[in-house]
Amino acid sequence: MIRNQWSDEVAKEWCDVAPQTPADQVLALRVYTSRLIGMDPDLVMHGGGNTSVKVRRKNLFGDMEDVLHVKGSGWDLEVIEAAGLPGVRLEPLKRLRTLDALSDEDMVNVQRNNLLDSAAPNPSVETLLHAYLPHRFVDHTHATAFLVLANLPNAAERCREIFGDRLGIVPYIMPGFNLAKVAADIYDTNPDVEGLLLLQHGHFAFGDTARQSYERIIEHTNLAAAALDLDGPTDIAPRDYDALPDAVVDLRGALAQCGGDGDTVPMPILDVRANHSILEFLERRDIAQLLSRGVASPDHVIRIKGRPLHLQRSTWKQGAAAIAAAIASFQQDYKTYYSREVARSSQPKTMLSSLPSLVWMEGVGIIGVGASAKAASVAADLGVQNARVRSVGEDQGGFHPVNEADLFDLEYWSLEQAKLGKSKPPVMVGKVVIITGAAGAIGRAIAGTFASAGADIVLVDQPGTGLKDVATSISKTALAVEMDITQDGASDRAIMAAISRFGGLDILVSNAGAAQTGTMLELDDRQLADSYDLNFFAPYRFARAAAHCFRRQGRGGQLLFNISKQSVNPGHNFGAYGLPKASTLFLMRQLALELGADHIRVNGVNADRIRSGIVTDEFIESRSSARGIEAADYMAGNLLKQEVEARHVAEAFLMLAQMERTTSHVVTVDGGNVEASLR
Ligand SMILES: [Zn+2]
After folding, report:
1. What's the DSSP call for residue 574?
2. Which of 73, 254, 610, 629 stands 20 to 30 A from 25 (CA)?
3. Is 164 exposed, middle or buried (0-12, 13-18, 19+ CB in 10 A)?
4. Distance from the CA of 141 to the center of ligand 1, in angstroms?
5. Residue 10 Cα to ligand 1 middle (Å)
6. How far does the centroid of ligand 1 lie from the alpha carbon of residue 90, in Å?
7. What backbone torsions phi and psi does residue 270 show, to the nearest 5 degrees?
8. pTM greater than 0.70
9. Do 19 and 81 form a contact (C-beta atoms < 8 A)?
10. CB-based burial of residue 417 (10 Å sphere; 0-12 exposed, 13-18 middle, 19+ buried)?
11. pLDDT tens-digit profile of 287-339?
């Protein structure tokens, strides 16, 4: 049951903050109900829906013009603002209806030419359909209930049973000019309808007010859901799993291996979803039939391809080689499909990656695969919705989406092909990075630097350090894992967190550390042992657990240690810190020796005098006053006479992470200190 969330009070708030012209007041309500629709994944997910409103606006000459505000590409309804509903002059759009044919490129061009703001995003590809319906407000969704209905073999009949003549029924046509014309003709034959069912595609509703159109969306969707026994919301929420089989890591490595040779091939990010109904779906007896039928709404093909990779228990339990073989066979099928379909096309096409974007892993879950955590999560969301549409649809009479040729036309749409190769991915895209001590000054800088370079980040630090806020400030997808890294099993838990959220691990930055101070004669054994636990044993255990994960993936990996100048150049009272750091320096070299053959690189940074949990304001004050100098001069007490900041350390780690043929190396970041130079 989808709840009607309209509130007069909130609607008024939207109007109060909008410009007080009649057109902008109407647009404010359009933004409000677009957000209400976008908020519910069972109405709209990831671009699968759009909204519009028609207003009159005065142009520069003082003449009134009809303007259609329609969702612009790149905006999500859930967070849309007025700027995400670009205004397009309506008359030229309406005039297009008199044409017999119009290419997609010409359609986009006319739409862009008639934008009120030439810098606005491209209006939706469904703009003309919105333009040809006379209602002021038009709302379009790919609601779960409507996707079930729209893909039934007798969808038109079921639609009439549920809605009588309240909805017009439009046959499947690819979005664009032809669909807009046919839908408008169907509307014209029965102008009393409240909406349209687009077979094998989705739902439209319209009205004279924002509220009326929105409430029709809700009412129609709930009627369809009730008639189809679709109870409750689709559970797309990701979870953190305490245990996932090693096969998830095998899968990630095998996907990269099948993607091409060389260590520079980006690793995919995996997003595992495994609630009760997903696991139950994967056990269905008819799963093999459901596999190859297609997707719930044709635009899903762009995010999840026409079919998922199916890994049965008997396959993935055999390990990485069996998984790789299943992927290779999927790729072969994809290439065959491409050659079969491209033969019909008059335009040249560029074949997309043949790797799967969605995996059905029996007993494990539905797994979204993408170049980034965002892309993987979109694929996982749509994958979960598709599974539900398939299972409910099949039980209600059959899941019969568009055929292969129609799917190909969408997947290889000229407008989609035009986007290829337009943007260069950032250098760290696809890399999953764990950073320990991530709430501290240096850890935060490292996390921010790697995230800016496109990596997906797992931040590890103690509870009570504000780690979750740090994660939020770094990126939408960064994961915070609060733990004491010296506890038993901590390293395994941190690696599992990375696997459960991102599918694996590529880089460990062992950064956490703290200094016990005192002369060697004053220290007791306990203090030294504690310092060893934190500054040596914890990094060692994390490195060991990470290296096991890297080996399993079979695609190299990196261990990076924040060591310290203390490892080679003792400082007064810092013996208890320097001893484990010297051991960590040796550990780095020992691991580099032992792991090189697995293409696992092991490197470190020796930093000195960085403002942090160790070099506190108090510490700086005592050191500088002992030497009779200013704090700033103490901090700049190096060859360069410049303070070294956390960001300089972070940049050194990022640089090491990109030095593909460097291992067992220490980069010194201390502004120059001859006594601490490595010999
Ligand atoms: Zn649509």
Report:
1. B
2. 73
3. exposed
4. 6
5. 28
6. 20
7. -115, 140
8. yes
9. no
10. middle
11. 999 998 999 999 999 999 999 999 999 999 999 999 999 999 999 999 999 99
